[in-house]
Specification:
- This protein is α/β, with parallel strands linked by helices and about 200 residues long.
- The chain is built from nine helices and five strands, in the order βαβααααββαααβα.
- Helix 1 (about 15-25) packs across helix 9 and helix 6 (about 135-145) crosses helix 7 (about 150-160).
- The longest helix has 26 residues, at about 80-105.
- The protein is globular, with a radius of gyration of 18 Å.
- The protein starts with a strand and ends in an 8-residue tail after the last helix.
- Pathway: Cofactor biosynthesis; coenzyme A biosynthesis; CoA from (R)-pantothenate: step 5/5.
Length: about 200
């Protein structure tokens, strides 16, 4: 039975870089962002519950979720954002845990990529949690550059999550992503080798 490694970080800390390194080593990836989109596809109970909570104006004429409209509703209203999370949380959790159960017998290591892992209480379902870390000033600079944001806009987005320093303290494993992608790759592969996980490929 494989190790279930929860992988998280903060916005613009480079979590997707680390995910792609594990993917290149052929470890299965469970992607919470992909699942979050799947649970609100046309005809799903998830979409039905969102419509019950926010009204039919968040659905397009084709019957799919109008993400832009929903985003406008929840982005400016924290209570509505919490409401959406509460509605979708059971569907997301069920789908993630189902995929973990399916994949844990197929590989020596299964990566569960969840941006809000600690915030959602998913750490209790993981064998270990790894945090992709950069110092907050690096995070801020990268986010401003990546998304063309002002310092205030970038700081607001960072402040909406648990701080990266707090996540670092809680983590079982810290993957430092402050230097080059090549350096990060060395760190991740070294950890895999030390754990004697034999799925690694060149």
């Amino acid at each position: 039975m494989g190790m279930i490694l929860g992988l998280t970080g903060g916005i613009a800390t480079g979590k997707s870089t680390v995910v792609s390194i594990f993917k290149s080593m052929n470890f299965p990836i469970i992607d919470a962002d992909v699942i979050a989109r799947e649970i609100v596809e046309v005809g799903t109970p998830g979409l039905e519950q969102v419509v019950n909570a926010f009204g039919s104006e968040i659905v397009t004429v084709e019957g799919s979720l109008d993400r832009k409209k929903l985003g406008e509703i929840i982005f400016s209203d924290e209570e509505k954002r919490k409401k959406l999370n509460k509605v979708l949380s059971p569907f997301l959790k069920e789908a993630i845990l189902t995929q973990i159960a399916d994949k844990k017998n197929q590989a020596p290591l299964v990566i569960v990529d969840i941006p809000l892992l600690y915030e959602g209480g998913y750490d209790k379902f993981m064998d270990k949690v790894a945090v992709v870390y950069v110092p907050e000033e690096v995070q801020l600079a990268r986010l401003m550059k990546r998304d063309h944001l002002t310092i205030n806009e970038a700081q607001q987005r960072i402040d909406s999550q648990m701080s990266i320093e707090k996540k670092k303290q809680k983590a079982d494993i810290v993957f430092d992503n402050e230097k080059s992608i090549q350096e990060t790759e060395k760190i991740v592969k070294k950890w895999v080798l030390e754990k004697n996980i034999d799925n690694i490929t060149d």
